[in-house]
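sorry for the late reply, my laptop died twice this morning and i had to redo everyting from scratch. anyway the thing you sent over, i finally got around to it. pasting the sequence first so we're on the same page, its 289 residues, then the predicted structure underneath. double check i copied it right bc i was rushing
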Amino acid sequence: MMNILTVFNIIPDLDLISEAEWASDIVDTRLNFPGVKTVPEAQDESAAELALRFRDAAAVGPVDSAAVRTTGSPDFISAAAAENEVRLSAVTLGDTVADKPLRTLTALGYQSADRIDTDRPGPDNAETHAALLAEYCRKRGPFDLILTGTQSSVSGFSQLPLLLAEALQFPCITEVTGFSAGAEGRIRIEHQTDTGILSEDLPTPLLLTIGDVPDTCLRIPTLRQRKASGSNPPSVISASEFSEELKENGIRLQSVSAIDQSRAARQMEGDTDDIAKQIVQEYIREGTR
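ok and here's the structure:
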């Protein structure tokens, strides 16, 4: 059996937040947007979907690396998935806003979905979160694959996956675009490098950070799947189970301000040809200084 853990983060829908709200809604060094819809990070969502595709591919037999990126989940896979040797788990940190996406994952076939209860979701406390997640992995594992998004769309620090890999002593492969079953029990990884896409077979355990992968939106569970998963709700775990004191360390958010993207401008009036000549002359003069 292969155990795969998807670590994801819940953030406010950034498209619904105005510039003024960014500057004003900082509470206790956290971004706070009450009433704004929350969504999983885009790359974390890709990680969750790739895990499902890996499970589906394992249920129907050996496939090549491109199979993990195929879309959809045929109905006939459901019967084979009952005897699947791939176990999917998910974990996140935060409050009750994370319960809805966790329920979605259990409806899609994740065998477990846990929330570590803390009021500090988000990327501004990466060291503490990595320590909590590492302890979670030791107690709830072992895991063969741990999947995360490459970076947070809020801060973009890309710290947590690397800190988690270091704490667990897992090899970490970044910018992964696909993975599948490789030869001799290995995992075939495709990841972006400076020279292009590199494909290699690697032994587990591994921590994979998923980059920007096209066509990997998380599938939507059917009503039947949601009803069937009603007896398997997300479990809530107190952070004190893994750490007696949730220490504040690492990079913390102090302030938010909008980037000044304004540019100096001058309105010119007159004949179009004369204006064009004037612009060219000024450009030449500026270039010779």
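Helices lie at 19-24, 42-60, 77-81, 99-107, 126-140, 160-168, 223-228, 272-287.
thats about all i looked at so far, will dig more tmrw
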